[in-house]
Amino acid sequence: MRNCVSRLMSARALSLFLSCVILVFSVDVLLIQTAWAGTQDHRHPKLSPSSQKSRVKGKAASLAPITVKNLRAVSSSKKTRLVLDLDRQPEVTEHQADNPRRVIIALPNTSLSQTARTKATDGTVPSPLVVTQITPHAVAVSLPTTSFETYKQFTLSDPPRLVIDVMPSLEQSPISIEETKPTPPRTDPAGTQPTQPRAKSYTTIVIDPGHGGKDPGARGLRRTEEKDITLNVALRLKELLRKRPDVRVLMTRDRDVYLELEERAKFANSHGADLFVSIHVNSHPSRLVKGLEVYHFGEAKDQRALEVAARENGTPISSTGVGWEYLVADLLTTKKIEASLELAWNAKEAMVTQMNGPYDVTDHGVKTAPFYVLRFTSMPSILAEVAFISNPDEEALLRKPTFINDVARSLYQGILSFLANNK
Fold first, then answer.
1. Is 226 within 8 Å of 218 (Cβ atoms)?
2. In the prediction, which pLDDT does 398 show?
3. What strand order describes the sheet that includes 381-388?
4. What is the DSSP code string of 186-220?
């Protein structure tokens, strides 16, 4: 009898203990659901320089990219509102970027539909907001800090939307969509037309011979140095371009001097360059690898592209990789991305076409990689790796003036092809 009573009391204690556990678990689940429920609304005054932390909201993105189905905007004297229509709830991050100072509102794991891509560049998005597909799986909205007094961004559901409200500063009011439409020129009573600003009659091209001075770049078996090859090609390319009356040619260096990568980009920006062409010579651990490839700025798609960027940047691979956060911080406009890609393809195709007869050319294609020298430029920019100095046969060619001339002429033809298609 005593054993039966003892067992009964133990059973009741166990039952009570399990009930407490279930109750605690239920409360935890309820708290978690409550924390995720509802829409968050972030309101921000003008950001201070010390505010550097990203603010993240929303649920973690699933493997399939979110799609921005449409873009809508409306402006008044008090507020500009931009709405991104989505196919599901996004993850949203924010942070500041410099040169120029701006707020970046980013959506990782997101892509623009064709409709949204068109509206991002046709004037639907009111100035100064800029919507960009910065990588195949990341979208960003850029907002200069000088253009607003306050702003807020928040998500809505049913249907999913990201809403960005911008309240202008007291010194300026937002530009409405109607105001961005061109208006016909006015005439005075005498019938004379007002003076129109003259369009620039020439294209400024900056040629950037890679490396120089204390930085020799890659070296071949015969001690050929990359810095000498790139300068020789650049000087010959300059002579070809100078013969055209509609082109102004500048060089970041025209002798054996050392320049920081940022200085090269700053030179191009300060001289109002329309195109930036950086010339380099490739290298590979295997001496059998040869050929040419042309890069524009972006996230490295494979390990070798990352290794090339690390070598040219003079940085370890571990600090060279570009995630979408890096690209957001150095936001590129859609126009620059597309123009850089087109310039790269024109240059590469011209090099393969022009040189594949006299030489056995291996085409490694057009690639993206995080080159610092391209990162800071504000115009369409490419980096051409014209040959592999680590390959004994191509090193021998790089030492011949005829080959240097042919490389320069093929780059020249690629640039002319790009200019002809982008007048």
1. yes
2. 98
3. 247-251, 203-209, 275-282, 381-388, 292-297, 363-369
4. P--TT-PPPPPPPPP-SEEEEEEE--BTTB---B-
pLDDT, tens only, 164-187: 988 877 654 433 333 333 434 444
Packing angle of the helix pair 334-355, 114-121 (nearest 10 deg)? 100
Averaged pLDDT for residues 80-95? 90
d(CA 307, CA 300): 9
One-letter amino acid identity for 60?
A: A
Going from the C-alpha of 46 to that of each of 112, 151, 169, the distances in angstroms are: 28, 8, 10
Q: Which range is most confident: 22-26, 240-244, 316-320?
A: 240-244
Q: pLDDT tier at 308 (50, 70, 90 boundaries)?
A: low
What distances in angstroms separate CA 238 from CA 204, 229, 244, 289, 411, one per listed residue?
12, 14, 10, 29, 11
Determine the residue type at 335: K
Tens digit of pLDDT for each residue in 23-77? 433 434 343 333 333 334 444 555 444 334 333 344 444 568 899 999 988 877 7
- Packing angle of the helix pair 401-421, 334-355 (nearest 10 deg): 140
Spatial distance between the Cα atoms of 70 and 73, rounded to a whole number of angstroms: 10
Please tell me the distance from the alpha carbon of residue 139 to that of residue 328, in angstroms, as a whole number. 8
Name the residue among 283, 286, 212 with its Cα closest to residue 252: 212
Q: Locate tokens 């016909």: which residue?
A: 184
What torsion, rounded to 10 degrees, do the Cα atoms 114, 115, 119, 122 define?
70
How far apart are alpha carbons 204 and 216 in whole angstroms? 28
Distances in Å between the Cα of 342 and the Cα atoms of 310, 352, 366 are: 24, 15, 10
What the chain holds in terms of domains, given with CATH numbers, is 41-170 (2.60.40.3500), 203-421 (3.40.630.40)
| Torsion of the alpha carbons at 225, 227, 231 and 232, rounded to the nearest 10 | 0
Identify which of 370, 295, 364, 286 has the alpha carbon closest to the alpha carbon of residue 327. Answer: 370
Q: How high is the mean pLDDT of the chain? A: 77
pLDDT digits (tens, 9 = 90+) for 194-215: 444 445 678 999 999 999 999 9
